[in-house]
Amino acid sequence: MWSILVAMAVVAAVTEPGKRCPGSPNQCSLHGSCMINRHGEYICNCQWGYTGFDCAQKMCPHGFDPVTSDAVQEKKLRVSILHLPPSSSILVQFHGHVVELDAAAGGATHLTTDVCAQVFRRFRNLGDLSCASTAVSADASSSSLPVAEFDLTLHSFPVYPVMNNLFHHAGNPSASDFSCDPPSACRFTSLTDANIKAYLPCSNHGLCNAVSGHLNGPVTIQGNVLHANHTTLAGGVTVRGTTAIHSEDLGSVTVGKLTSLVALSVTDAASACLTCRHAENHV
Question: Which of 19, 97, 137, 254 is the most buried (most CB within 10 A)?
Fold first, then answer.
């Protein structure tokens, strides 16, 4: 997927009479580059944080919906390192971003869970993540067997999305969106595809102003308020940050003037803790 999308937009457009990229009065609204795809079409490749065919829309803060109970799985992928180039590095790619895995330093023995996490944390478009090693076969005679294998869990993504009109997802990126160079060096396999926590504008609890990139209130958070300021809602949802909520025992809370997101810790009745995002109230 990454290579396909890049191939669509690698050629910068040269101005021809009567041909231009979308956007008014300026091409790509001054928030992107004008490109020619493989079909000869003039398209915009927006700056990170902008989207739309003409790059006129600014993306609002994104987060997980802490109220939705039927989508609680975190995205997990299996990363299989199939072979190590003897004197070069492996380039790992995801949605227009590239990081380097030093394949020449120490061989397969240096591919630990810490190294795995360090490599993927270099991606600006990923958030909190963790790696767990899996057992691999000791049969080194087969080129199809991995020399190292990890289960990569994507716990979160950036509050301010590092996405655009060409590279975007809703919390469940496909395994094919990840790749390596050389391609034969690694393989990505999706381990979780259903009931994945949705990564949505305004955490699905607000209206996105695509002009300003801010959240428009009011937004209603269902639950009973137990504590003001560091507000605890029914179900154990804790809003950390300055709020204007000072009443208690309400059936719902209306939060307005939302401009950013803060971390939430959500604990269900079974005390299973998961990391979410919700809106911070600025008044």
Answer: 97
**Residue 3 CA, distance from chain mean position:** 18
CB 85 within 8 A of CB 58: no
DSSP assignment letter at 7: H
CA-to-CA distance for 257 and 209, rounded, in angstroms? 12
Q: Residue 72: name the closest of 180, 190, 181, 192 by CA.
A: 192
Count of residues making up the chain: 283
- Residue 141, judged by CB atoms within 10 A of its CB (0-12, 13-18, 19+), counts as exposed
Query: The tokens 């927006």 sit on which residue?
Result: 46
> What sign does the CA torsion over 51, 52, 55, 58 have?
negative
User: What is 27-58's CATH number, 1.20.58, 2.115.10, 2.60.40, 2.10.25?
Assistant: 2.10.25
Strand-strand pairing, 252-255 and 219-222: antiparallel
- The per-residue pLDDT for range 176-224, each reduced to its tens digit, is 999 999 998 999 999 999 999 999 998 888 888 888 887 765 444 444 3
